[in-house]
Design a protein that fits this description.
Elements (H helix, E strand, L loop, with lengths): L2 H15 L2 H38 L2 E3 L4 E4 L8 E2 H7 L5 E3 L4 E4 L5 E3 L2 H26 L1
Helix pairs in contact: 1-2
This protein binds zinc ion (ZN).
């Protein structure tokens, strides 16, 4: 039998006996029990979140750039290190072909692939040089 079924049974008995004072005390106590039960549910949820967070924390691999990965992750997903550090949330970052990444939550940016980043920078420089050369030719 659950706590509330027992309280209801005791309340019925007290009501039968007509002891209003004890009946009121029982109602007050059952209200306190309900508050405590709600608090227990809330604390259990908090403990569960903390366990999950601690579990993840033990799997985190840090890198020189501001992103993190998880040990044993075969997909090698990159997460934002700032979001993990501030809110303990795993936010997947958006990776670009340029070798850079950006967190869609906090705007944190960095480079996840140096070779791609270098190649992208060279392509950009070449494009600007070509544009500048074309503009010089058009001015004559
Ligand atoms: Zn972030």
């Amino acid at each position: 039998m659950g706590l509330y079924e027992e309280i209801k049974d005791v309340a019925k008995e007290i009501k039968k006996q007509g002891n209003i004072e004890i009946y009121a005390q029982l109602i007050d106590l059952s209200s306190q029990a309900l508050d405590m039960q709600n608090e227990i549910v809330s604390l259990n949820a908090e403990v569960s979140e903390l366990k999950k967070s601690k579990d993840i924390d033990s799997k985190i691999e840090r890198h020189s750039e501001p992103y993190i990965t998880l040990k044993g992750d075969t997909e090698l997903i990159l997460y934002c290190s700032r979001c993990w550090g501030h809110e303990e949330k795993l936010i997947q970052v958006k990776c670009y072909d340029s070798g850079s990444f950006k967190c869609t939550h906090c705007e944190n940016t960095g480079v996840y692939d140096e070779a791609k980043d270098e190649a992208y920078s060279q392509r950009q420089s070449e494009m600007y040089r070509n544009l500048a050369a074309r503009n010089r030719r058009n001015q004559w």
